[in-house]
Amino acid sequence: MVNILSLFTLAALWGGSFLFVRIAANPLGPAVLIEVRVAFAALTLLVVSFFLKKSLRFMSNIKHFLILGLFNSALPFLLFAYSAQVLNVSTLAVLNSTAPIWGAVIGAIWTRTRLSKDVIFGLILGMIGVSVLVGWEAINIGDEAIIPIITALIGAFSYGVATNYAKNAPSVEPFNNAHGSMWASVLLVLPLVPFMPVREEVTSDIIAAVFALGAVCTGLAYLLYFRLIKELGASSALTVTFIIPVFGILWGYLFLGETVGVNAIIGTILVVIGTMFVTGFASKFMSKKCV
């Protein structure tokens, strides 16, 4: 029961991250927003490391942290922040949930493994779900929605790269992976800040949104995620991916007044079911039902 509650809490936090990105992306610009986000997250994890008495040894694993930081945070965070200037919270959350699908495809290419029928079926469902979103957003927003949708999908693709890299990466404690990759992201994003300056007056609401995004939805959420991996295993912890779009839609509706269109519901259902087939959760669920 505690683990189920933790899964929903994590999904609520990560679903909320798209809400805060949406609020702050236009006034701060993608680079400043993400630099502050990863800095808050890194500082939060630094404080926690003191209490847990964990030594990071950043320089000993700097290459690993830079690669992980690039593909697991800096690049996808920037791409989603860019997309958030145009796309609504629910669309961002659903596009993000394609990450396990990309991970499976990249893994198959990486290991030269043939895709099973379930995985192919899941990929088709996922692509149809994304097409429903893309088509509707293009009609609703216009041609300016196309590039943000593509950049968000590339962000999800980046998470897939990070997942497969992590499987073959140097053996580093999960907490230190989160902590070290955040400091690496700070270094990676920093050079972009002068080229994408703040655009509007920074209000208290924006400061609060960025603090919540960095400290809570990134730093503390990572701690919760790695605790779930330790207690449930990586596969079970991945079920959070299925719940995130629900909270993304809910937070967008409650706090920004975003309409919940039929396209968002259909797209979400198709992407979630497709992801379940790609990751093998659908077959496991069906086998349990048959026992």
UniProtKB/TrEMBL annotation:
Q: What is the lineage of its organism?
A: Bacteria, Pseudomonadati, Pseudomonadota, Gammaproteobacteria, Vibrionales
Would you tell me the protein name for this molecule?
Transporter, drug/metabolite exporter family
Q: Which SUPFAM superfamilies match?
A: Multidrug resistance efflux transporter EmrE (SSF103481)
Pfam family example for this protein?
A: EamA
What is the organism of origin for this protein?
Aliivibrio fischeri (strain ATCC 700601 / ES114) (Vibrio fischeri)
**PANTHER family assigned:** AMINO-ACID METABOLITE EFFLUX PUMP-RELATED (PTHR32322:SF9), INNER MEMBRANE TRANSPORTER (PTHR32322)
Question: What UniProt keywords are attached to this protein's entry?
Answer: Membrane, Transmembrane, Transmembrane helix
- Indicate how the chain sits in the lipid bilayer: Multi-pass membrane protein
Domain EamA residue range list: 4-134, 148-279
Q: Where is the signal peptide?
A: none
Gene Ontology cellular component terms for the protein in this record: membrane
Source species, domain of life: Bacteria
TM ranges: 34-52, 64-83, 89-110, 119-139, 145-166, 178-194, 206-225, 237-256, 262-282
- Provide the protein's localization: Membrane
